[in-house]
Structures are given as structure tokens and as C-alpha cells.
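Thread amino acids onto this structure.
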């Protein structure tokens, strides 16, 4: 069984579904009558949940405070009417805990791969990620930060198209050529100079959390096969499954 340590910011994802049939008389906004609420772990916890579903053994290091992402959704159209983020910041990771993550050990847990899920809420700094990269191996990074020299020694870094556009002028792409995976939504993803297309499906319901699933699938399959093409294809298959489900879902 493949073992992973996941470290990064996590939250509770809340989806409140309801009927929306009229506008408010007080303001030009829709009135939602809630009928169903779904809660699940998000961000780093979503990565963990997906890995467990795939059959991996997982430990997590994450923030103790409860960040919440609350989405109000019309149940009929699946249109999001409002998103409210609560406690949208966390304290930095405990440095004593961080320093124990080295040589693919954390306390009494030995792991094969390290997944850094950095949503840039304050839990991990560039220095923290640099420490993790230089003291462990088989590291998979997903970050909202602008990339720099501190990522050049990572094994793989996954960012989406918008994140890539923000960061490309700050990095030496030659140093990330063998490591950078850019996801491009319904177009698939790009690795090196090749585009990997994704199966087009009807009935896409929600893209929330699809990046977490892609990261989980890529890391899991790569650690099983050491084959990048196989890992990308598996990751895209997994992401295709979850976008056809409501909310932040696992495979």
C-alpha cells in the first residue's frame, strides 16, 4: 500500500442547496429556500479523502482552525448564488511539527510520497515549503503562490491555467521543464510541450475540488508506476469523474 503525508491548508466545504423561484422585493437578489446541506473536508483534506478512496494510507498535517467555504446553490440549475468564506486565514504550521518531516518520516509514520496542498491561507510559507522539498523525496506540490527558486528542486508542481499566467514571468521554465504540469480545464493539461486531452463529458455539475482530485490521482498513480503519462491520464480520469458530481466530491 502506498503511503502519503499530506500537508497544507484545509477547510470545511459546505454546499447549501435550495429552491430559487423568485426575487426579493427588497433588492434585486434571488430568494433561496434551503432544502439540503452537504459538508465535507476541503482543500488538503479533500486531497486526503481522494487518496484514501484510491487505496492509499494517509496522514495529514493541517491547520487546527476551521476555515469554511459556504456555497449557496440553486438545486434546479446548480447555479451558485453566493459564496461566503469564514475564518479565511490560519496560523503558520507549528515549526516543531514541520522540522519532524524529514527523510520521508513524520513522527512514527513512514511515507512514500509527500503532497503539499498550499492554498496560501497562511499555513505554509515559501521557507516552509523549501524546507520540505530539501529534506524529503517524491514531493508533489500544488500551490497558489507565485513560483520562484524555492520550487526548482521539487519533483512535480501542478498549477492551473490562471495560476500559470500569473507566475510564468517570474520563473525559469527550463528549470521546471520536467516538473511543471499545467491543468487547462476542459482542454486537459500540459506537460512539457505536449497537451494531454481529456474526455469531454455531458452533465458537468461542479468544478469545485477537481484540482485536488487531479493532484491526488497523479501522485497516487505516479508512485505506483513511475510513469508520467500513465499518472496524467489517471489523474484526468479521476477529475472527469468528480466534475460530474455535485459539490466537492471524491472519486
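Threaded sequence (251 positions):
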Amino acid at each position: 500500500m502506498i503511503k502519503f503525508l499530506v500537508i497544507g491548508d484545509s477547510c470545511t466545504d459546505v454546499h447549501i442547496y435550495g429552491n430559487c423561484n423568485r426575487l426579493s422585493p427588497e433588492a434585486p437578489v434571488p430568494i433561496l429556500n434551503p432544502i439540503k446541506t452537504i459538508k465535507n473536508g476541503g482543500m488538503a483534506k479533500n486531497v486526503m479523502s481522494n487518496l484514501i478512496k484510491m487505496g492509499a494510507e494517509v496522514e495529514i498535517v493541517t491547520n487546527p482552525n476551521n476555515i469554511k467555504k459556504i456555497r449557496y446553490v440553486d438545486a434546479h440549475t446548480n447555479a451558485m448564488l453566493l459564496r461566503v468564506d469564514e475564518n479565511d486565514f490560519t496560523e503558520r504550521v507549528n515549526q516543531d511539527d514541520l522540522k519532524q518531516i524529514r527523510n520521508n518520516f513524520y513522527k512514527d509514520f513512514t511515507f512514500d510520497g509527500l503532497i503539499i496542498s498550499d492554498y496560501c491561507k497562511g499555513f505554509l510559507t515559501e521557507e516552509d515549503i523549501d524546507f520540505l522539498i530539501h529534506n524529503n523525496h517524491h514531493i508533489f506540490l500544488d500551490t497558489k503562490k507565485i513560483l520562484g527558486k524555492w520550487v526548482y528542486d521539487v519533483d512535480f508542481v501542478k498549477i492551473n491555467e490562471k495560476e500559470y499566467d500569473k507566475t510564468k514571468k517570474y520563473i525559469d521554465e527550463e528549470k521546471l521543464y520536467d516538473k511543471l504540469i499545467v491543468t487547462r480545464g476542459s482542454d486537459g493539461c500540459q506537460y512539457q510541450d505536449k497537451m494531454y486531452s481529456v474526455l469531454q463529458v455531458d452533465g458537468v455539475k461542479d468544478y469545485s475540488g477537481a484540482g485536488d482530485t487531479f493532484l491526488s490521482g497523479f501522485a497516487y498513480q505516479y508512485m505506483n508506476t513511475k510513469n508520467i503519462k500513465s499518472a496524467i491520464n489517471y489523474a484526468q480520469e479521476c477529475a472527469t469523474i468528480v466534475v460530474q458530481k455535485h459539490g466537492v466530491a471524491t472519486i
